[in-house]
Amino acid sequence: MSDITEPSIARVDVVRETLHGVTLEDPYRWMETEGEEFHHWLDGQARHAREHLDALPHRSGLLTRIRELGSALTRYFGLAMAADRVFALVREPDARVPVLTVTEADGASRVLFDPGTVPGDGHHAIDWYVPSPDGRHVACAVSASGSEDSSIHVIDADSGALRETIPPTTRFAFLSWLEDGRSFVYHRYAEQHLLDSRSFLHRLGADPAQDAVVLARGLNPHVELTPRDRPFLVVPPHGEWMLAIVSHGALSPWPWTGEQLSDCTLYVAPRTGLADPAACPWRLVAGVADGVTAFATSHDTLYLVTHRDAPRSRVLAVPLAAPDLSRARVIVPAGERAVESVRVVGDRLLVRELDGGVSRMRHVPLSGGEPADLPMPVDGAILEWTTHSTRPEALLLVAGWTDAPRLYRYDGHFLQDTGLAPRSPVDFGDVHARTLYAPAQDGTPIPLTVIHHKDLELDGDNPAVLTGYGSHGFIDLPEFRPEMLAWYERGGVYAVAHLRGGGTYGREWHEAGRGERKEATITDFIDCAEHLIALGYTRPGRLAGEGVSSGGIPTGGALVRRPDLWAAMAMHVPTVNTTRNEFTDSGPVNVPEFGSVTTEEGLRALLIIDAYLRVRDGVPYPAVLLTTGLRDARVPPWQPAKLAARLQAATASGRPVLMRVEERGWHGAGSTSDQEQALLADVLAFILHASDGS
């Protein structure tokens, strides 16, 4: 490793500012302009990181094994049903990106759309898609190199021919086909910024530039919007009503357009109002204080999952014609399980719940009655589900930590394996997964999933990776990753901390790690690490932390608070300089979650989670691997770059601080299989090298 060039040194130019009586010092504020100097420095960092990672002794063998494991399983996801057709995104073992497939009523399957055929630089990927209810057309969102700045390709489902394309500016799957099957409403941003977004009505064959605005700030006096708010229009495939969902904060990505909501306001109106959007008689159903996180509709009823007066949520029903929450029927009362979402299937309501992070399902007659448990095939996760618009039928993709995804059909009574998702040839029979409970500083038990080879010795000398997220109410669902067998075969431990701030126990778990309570997210992560050590799974010299995006908050917080606890820290496209986050394009929508420097309370909350400002000179920090994508629109490259520069200047340990740069990468979505496998090999090799002490 001695032949590796040294990383380029970043210029220090301290900017001092005083906010609410607190003076902040920022030595690398100049990076935020992302000018020529920044990119020159970043190029040098990228070369240094690549040389270092390529020279790691374990990398070559890990990459070979990861590719072998990754090429063994065909992956199905992104399910949808329309007419007699089943649509799915499928990634074959040798494919760079998933393709859109359609399965006909006779069982014959074919590729309907391959994003690899889209011309342009880099690779293209499907972000989401929505078939028309008659199954004749598919609106398919495609972006370049995982940018999530999607263009909409309208595909003829009979021939696979491209009908037309709406240029990029779309990012969310709030797209609803109308009953004619030839028009749809959709949401898009302005070309230059993320403020004042709008929903439009598009008719096939029309010029997208002439699409009519149907929901926007200042358009209709009944719907109040700020520049930051995003107005989404939902037109169900049945009935006479439509919904307006106004998002005031960050949202979870597709496919959960009708669930995992937060900080939203809901309105209802007759769909005839589309003829005159400015005069459409929108009626308020629920505000932010009503805590609606998911919804579903039948012809005349709106079903709402709400955490108001129910810490783990309950299900209410109101008539669409008179949606008065004060007179709502309780369909599923509050209980020990956290209610996630609901779907209408025939004459029943399917209710998806979480029981300590494990998916459960109940169904209840729409006419009323007691919810009944639906036996699940594994104690794992419902990764996704979809329902048919006219038939009493649902498809559920179910998986566990050691169980490959299987596709099940619900017929109103039971779950049956469809056989459509192939069984995994990767044998996890010798891999063990269990859930522990780590005692937090305040006594709260924090669920901690631990996965490893069943013959692992608890001698405190195993390399271990602890990962966590803990924001936005995000749920760390069981995920089957065949490539991770390369880690378990080497005696590695992989642990998932289900942190407060996430959604393991519903809204109460989210609120317990939000805003000024965000310290709990970080201390939970540290407490989980110490629990692994206390039980003999690992020790500080062999333990690494890992986090992605907002997962940079627990990992960055643990790095600067307890550097002695870690051999290494791997942080991917991380949010680490939160006091500057709201000044990014995507930052304003995160203010409800994290806070704003414009208020004293908000500044206090942000200073809790700003790892960059907490780095101190002369501290022996562990080895650190930071990653970014040059085209990341959610967390700009300067966020991890500033932390890399600060750690390189401050650390006294002599351990590497690397800045890994993906030239044709964004925030992770839409990555090719080669990119995903190379990143995993880099991370595991980096961690092994740091924990080996070599």
**What's the number of extended β-strand segments?**
38
CATH superfamily of the largest domain: Alpha/Beta hydrolase fold, catalytic domain
Beta content comes to 25-35%
Give the N-terminus to C-terminus distance in angstroms. 10 Å
Shape: globular
Structural class: alpha+beta
Low-confidence residue ranges:
none
What fraction, in percent, of the residue positions are helical? 10-25%
Average pLDDT taken over every residue: 93
Q: Biggest sheet: strands, sense, closure?
A: 8 strands, mixed
Q: If strands are numbered along the chain, what order do they take across the biggest sheet?
A: 31-32-34-33-35-36-37-38
Radius of gyration: 25 Å
CATH topology of the largest domain: Rossmann fold
Can you walk through the features of this model?
This protein has 694 residues and is an alpha+beta fold. The protein folds into three domains: 15-69 and 426-692, 3-Layer(aba) Sandwich (Rossmann fold); 74-163; 164-417, Methylamine Dehydrogenase, Chain H. It has ten helices and 38 strands. The strands form nine sheets. An eight-stranded mixed sheet has the order 31-32-34-33-35-36-37-38, with helices on both faces. A four-stranded antiparallel sheet has the order 3-4-5-6, with no helix packed on it. β31 and β32 form a beta hairpin. The protein is globular and about 65 Å long. The relative contact order is 0.11. The mean pLDDT is 93.
